[in-house]
Specification:
About 70% of the residues lie in helices and about 10% in strands.
């Protein structure tokens, strides 16, 4: 689904979601091989997880339903741990 970008801000295009890869990005991943594929995959996943954290932070700041806020905290924490792991793997390629 398409994403409209304005500076560093991504907003979902009609029918789209923040963090979803564009067709161009998916094709680049399909065509990549070896360490290029690994690097591209990790880079794309890090961005995807960072977007998830952004959405979770919005819920933590603006949410009104306690259990959803608790879940958002858990998502943000877990996603950050995975980002840190992926950045370590990326640095080792």
């Amino acid at each position: 689904m398409p994403v409209m970008t304005s500076g560093d801000t991504q907003m979902p295009a009609p029918g789209g979601m923040i963090g979803q890869l564009s067709e161009r990005e998916l094709n680049a991943l399909r065509e990549a091989t070896g360490n290029d594929a690994n690097s591209l995959f990790l880079t794309q996943m890090i961005a995807h997880y960072e977007d998830a954290i952004s959405v979770a932070q919005t819920e933590m700041e603006e949410g009104h339903y306690h259990l959803a806020v608790v879940m958002a905290r858990s998502i943000a924490s877990g996603q950050q741990q995975e980002i840190d792991t992926m950045k370590g793997i990326l640095a080792s390629l």
